[in-house]
Amino acid sequence: MSYALLIDITQCVGCGECRTACQKSHGFPEIEARNLNEKNFTTLEQYGDTWVRRMCRHCNEPACGSVCPVGALEKTKAGPVNYDASKCLGCRYCMLACPFDIPKYEWSSNNPRVRKCTMCYDERTSKGQPTACSEACPAGATLFGKRDELLAEAHRRISENPDNYVHRIYGEKEIGGMSVLFLSSVPFEKLGFKTEIGSEALPQKTWNVLSKLPDVVVTAGAAFSAIYWITHRREEVKRFEESQRNNNSTK
Q1: pLDDT tens digits, residue range 153-173?
Q2: Residue 51, H or E segment
Q3: Which secondary structure element, helix H or strand E, spans residue 209, and what is its range?
Q4: 107 close to 45: Cβ distance less than 8 angstroms
Q5: Pick from 67, 72, 60, 79: nearest CA to 125
Q6: From start to end of 93-239, where are the E strands?
Q7: Which tens digits make up the pLDDT trace of 7-16?
Q8: How many whole angstroms separate alpha carbon 40 and alpha carbon 36?
Q9: What are phi and psi of 45, to 5 degrees?
Q10: pLDDT at residue 45 is higher than 70
Q11: Residues with Cβ < 8 Å from 177, sequence gap 6 or more?
Q12: Can you tell me the distance from the alpha carbon of 157 to that of 238, in angstroms, rounded to the nearest whole number?
C-alpha cells in the first residue's frame, strides 16, 4: 500500500493552512518562512496569482536514501521517505544528493539531525491516516490517498478539463516517480519546477557510474562501515563507563 499527495495548484488559494498544520504537527513555531529549513518542512511560493507548495517529493527511488551509508533515510512501503535519527552519522551526503535541495541540518543543535517533511509517517501515514496538511486544506488543493488512485484522479481532471491544465502530472514519472504529485495550469518550468530531470531514477544513474568503479565502491563502503562501527563503539564504551561509575557510587 503506497500513499501519496496530489497537489492541484489550480485549487490552491494560498491560505497557508497546510503550512500552519505542519508547524503544529511537529511542534514548530508558527513563523512564516520563505524557504525550507530545519523547522519549516513546507512553504508557499507565489508566482503572480499562483501559489506553489515546496516540500519533500518522497521519491520512489530517493537519491538521499541511496547515498546514505547507514540507511538512515529509507523509502517505506507506505510511501514516505522516512528518516531514522538513531542511525544517522551526520555525513550530510543526503543533502548533496537531493536534486530538490530538500534535507536541512540542525546546525545550531548540540545533537543535530537531518530534517525534512516526514509525510507524517510515524503519527499518521504508517497507520493509513491522512497527512496533517491534506486534512487542513480547506480548498481541497492537497489530497491524500493511494498513489494509483490519485494518479487516476489527476488524469481524470486533465481529461475532463484539458484547457485548465498542463497535460502533465509532475511526479508521475520524473526521476522514477514520486509520492507527491502536482497538477498545474501554468507550465511547471515557470513555477520553479525542475522539468529537465528525465524519468530515470537518480540512484540508477549513480549506480551506472559506480558500477564501473568497483574499487572505489568497495573502498568507500569499507570506510563508511568503519566510521559507523567507530561511532557506535564510542557510544557503547560511554554507556559502559557511566554504568560502572554508577555502580561504584552505590557501593
Answers
A1: 999 999 999 999 999 999 999
A2: strand 50-54
A3: helix 202-210
A4: no
A5: 79
A6: 104-105, 114-115, 142-146, 180-183
A7: 999 999 999 9
A8: 5
A9: -120, 140
A10: yes
A11: 59, 60, 61, 171
A12: 58
